[in-house]
Amino acid sequence: MHRNEKAWTAWVWLQRPVPALPLDLFRICVGLLSFLYFLNLLCELPDFSHPNGLLDHALIQDIYWITRLGLFHPGIESGVLYATLGLACLGAWGIIVGYRIKLCAALLFIITVSSYRWNFMVMNVDDAIMHILLAWLLLLPVGQTLILSEWWQKGAECVTQWQRVMVPGLALRCFLGNVCLIYFVAGLWKFESPLWREGTALFAILQLPVAYLPDIWDTQHLPFLRIANYLALVFEPIIPVLLLVKRGHPLKYLGLAVQIGFHLFILVTLRIPFANLALLATPVLFFRDELMFVLRRWSAAEGSPDWQSAPLYPQYSRWPGRLAVILLFLLALTQTRRLPGISILYKPAAAVLWGIGIVQEYQLFNWIDRKNYLVQYPAKITHTDGQQYNVSSIQLFPSSLHAIVLQTYLYDVPWIPVAEKYRPLLKRSIMARSAQRYCRLHSSARDIVVSVQVQRIPSVAVSAASSPRFMMHFQCFNATAIICETMLDIEPARAGPRTKGTTSRRAEHCAPAIVGDQAGEAIPQGGKDEERGNDNNRPEAPQ
């Protein structure tokens, strides 16, 4: 009986009402972040979501059949994609101003899930965090305060009324539990990494293409980066512990300083903006009591005693809180994949979450030992005037994080595991589509030979550059790419640097790069439909 009483007391504590105002401040942050996220997807649409972009969506849906559960399918018109993402941008403003919040959040969640499944092979932590934020927005008790139409009608007097509104706290505490899980799991998994343990992981990460300025870091920065490496190891898993101590405790403010410093450092060095901005918005919830204390003191100083009146408790259903408990429980089970004895729980939990649109992994840069590669694409371009030029990597692929992820499949360090039988098809598709993109953007080019130079980033200094290996040779005619030869068409022994004369194949012996998402059209140079069967194994979530 004593144990039951304790459990009941804990359940009652979890449901204690919380101020509504901080929740709606967080809602506005999520709305603004969603607008920027969908605006970014719109800008990247020609390169990734478009049927003629860098991704063969028909092939993706063949490799991972479960990605077919979404709004977008091969054959979709580009205008529909633009309209859908444009609608998502409008829906984000509905969340910001407080208009039909749950409806807008549901719409944005469905579009986000469909977008990451449509572009599944390049999904990253930004996509993962954004769709989970919108899922939680459906469960959190938001929408009672900070409504633009209400402020427009009543003016400043509604602000003091908003300070009195209290809402159920169960869903909020479950969401904060999810945030704590992100820090806790991501921090602990790093101890698996030899580079993190020896203090050189951060040095290697900052030389990856995901970094903004990978060329500025060298061995003279190693002492500073080693300290930052160990500080991340120590503080990342304990950030939630610091943020959950009682109000006013110095350790809580230490946790806030560590959290802000941690994410600001990532924001200014790495191309991962949305996940870090999202987590930087969570202090408004962790410090909700402190925030309300400051607001009420300000109201008292302004001579508005209304906030001292009895709290307001709007009617709310109990179901969102209960669903939040189930969601948090399933998210926790998905972290048992490599834990002995209970890893069997991972697959059913992950399957249920996938069914409702959620895929979540909390492994952030613990994979650096396996994927610490630096890749460049030395290219020789012959223009229509007969002059030859060197071309930088940035002209062959976009500079976005999604493009960086896409390139990992070309040099066999795939971001998401791909079955062996699909790898040649995928590589050929990426090469053909990147060639077509180049010809579309550079109409003056005539003959292009591209090599790939892959080098491992060791723990202390970048290794000597390896010899470039031939990747592909293509020609541009009337903004159309003509594929002459790729690394898949020559024997492995010839895959090294091209010798003189090997790039002189005539255009009539080249094959047009066929791009598009129609079945049977996505694989250039003789790809066969019968080779594109279904893989019924659930793919691992992106890291």
Describe the structure.
- The protein has 543 residues and is of the alpha+beta class.
- Helix content is 48%, strand content 9%.
- Strands 3, 4, 5, 6, 7, 8 and 9 form a seven-stranded antiparallel sheet that branches.
- A hairpin with a 4-residue loop joins β4 and β5 (388-391).
- α4 (78-97) runs antiparallel to α5 and α18 packs across α19.
- The chain starts with a helix and ends in a 31-residue tail after the last strand.
List keywords for this structure.
543 residues; two-stranded antiparallel ribbon; single chain; 48% helix; alpha+beta
Short characterization:
The chain has helices at residues 2-14, 20-44, 57-63, 78-97, 101-118, 125-139, 148-154, 157-162, 170-189, 194-198, 201-205, 222-235, 239-243, 250-269, 273-280, 283-286, 288-301, 319-333, 346-355, 368-371, 401-407, 423-441; strands at residues 18-19, 166-167, 373-376, 379-383, 388-391, 445-456, 469-477, 480-486, 511-512.
Rg:
26 Å
Largest sheet: 7 strands, antiparallel
Q: Approximately how much beta-strand content do the residues carry? A: 5-15%
**Number of helix segments?**
22
Which parts are unreliable, with pLDDT below 50 for 5 consecutive residues or more?
493-508, 518-543
Helix fraction by DSSP (H/I, runs of at least 4): 40-55%
Overall structural class, as computed from helix and strand content, comes to: alpha+beta
Mean pLDDT: 84
Shape: globular
How far is the N terminus from the C terminus?
44 Å
Give the helices and strands, then pairings.
Layout: H1 2-14, E1 18-19, H2 20-44, H3 57-63, H4 78-97, H5 101-118, H6 125-139, H7 148-154, H8 157-162, E2 166-167, H9 170-189, H10 194-198, H11 201-205, H12 222-235, H13 239-243, H14 250-269, H15 273-280, H16 283-286, H17 288-301, H18 319-333, H19 346-355, H20 368-371, E3 373-376, E4 379-383, E5 388-391, H21 401-407, H22 423-441, E6 445-456, E7 469-477, E8 480-486, E9 511-512
Antiparallel strand pairs: 1-2, 3-6, 4-5, 4-6, 6-7, 7-8, 8-9
